[in-house]
Amino acid sequence: MKKLLPILLLLVGLGAGAGLGFVMQPEADPDAVAGAHAPEDAPDDATHGAGDAAGVVLAEAGSTPSATGHYAPAPANVQTVRFPNQFVVPLIDEGRVHALVVIAIALEMDARFDFSMMTHEPRLRAIFLQLFFDHANLGGFDGVFTSGESLLALRRSLREAARIEIGTEVSDVLITELVRQET
Fold first, then answer.
1. Cβ–Cβ contacts within 10 Å for residue 52, how many?
2. Mean pLDDT of the region 113-131
3. What's the chain's Rg over C-alpha atoms?
4. Which residues, 6 or more positions from 53, have their beta carbon under 8 angstroms from its beta carbon?
5. How far is CA 98 from the centre of its chain?
6. Which has more pLDDT, 17 or 35?
7. Residue 170 in contact with residue 163, Cβ under 8 Å?
8. What's the rounded Cα separation, in Å, for the pair 22 and 4?
9. 3-class DSSP state for residue 75?
10. Nearest residue to 158 (alpha-carbon basis) of 111, 103, 115, 114
11. Angle (nearest 5°) at CA 38 between 36 and 42
């Protein structure tokens, strides 16, 4: 009986936790499911085109979110290049670091593009760190920071910055790991 009681309590706790998680999950917003992100991700001829100062065309290629928020597979001519080291972003409140966010990213780009991580990493790392710091200072890593809207906005800004720095060969920036550790 002594061996059966902990197993029984574990099963009851798991069942109660799963049931509570199912009951407490937020209801799906019909507008978000119907593709509320699609217009933001689609290129707009009025803002992106011949008049774009950086010459960046924001047409989607690679693994892009569909109307349901799921990602389509990357085309065959796309290579994925991972950054060798993670990005560490401190979250500061009242002058003290209260948490750290660790992020790993990868670039999806045209496989024919001659990309050298050794050449491009220092500048891209500095640009991406500044974007992560700005995102953190605006509260982007507070609350439910893993929501689809928050991550899509962050990825979109990373993708635009990468395209300005490298060129339109960059089709997407993927967040491959994201962890927040309270200090």
1. 12
2. 91
3. 20
4. none
5. 22
6. 17
7. yes
8. 27
9. coil
10. 103
11. 145
Length of the chain: 183
Give tens-digit pLDDT for 144-162.
Answer: 888 888 899 999 999 999 9
Residue whose tokens read 């990493």: 121
pLDDT tens track for 18-53: 766 666 666 555 554 444 444 444 433 333 333 333
Q: Going by C-beta distance under 8 Å and a sequence separation of 6 or more, which residues neighbour residue 4?
A: none
Mean of pLDDT over the chain: 76
| Cα–Cα distance, 141 to 89 (Å, whole number) | 10
Rounded distance, CA 136 to CA 64, Å? 24
Choose among 109, 103, 101: nearest CA to 159. Answer: 109
Residue 142 neighbours by CB distance under 10 Å: 13
Q: Is the pTM of this model over 0.85?
A: no
Name residue 17's amino acid: G
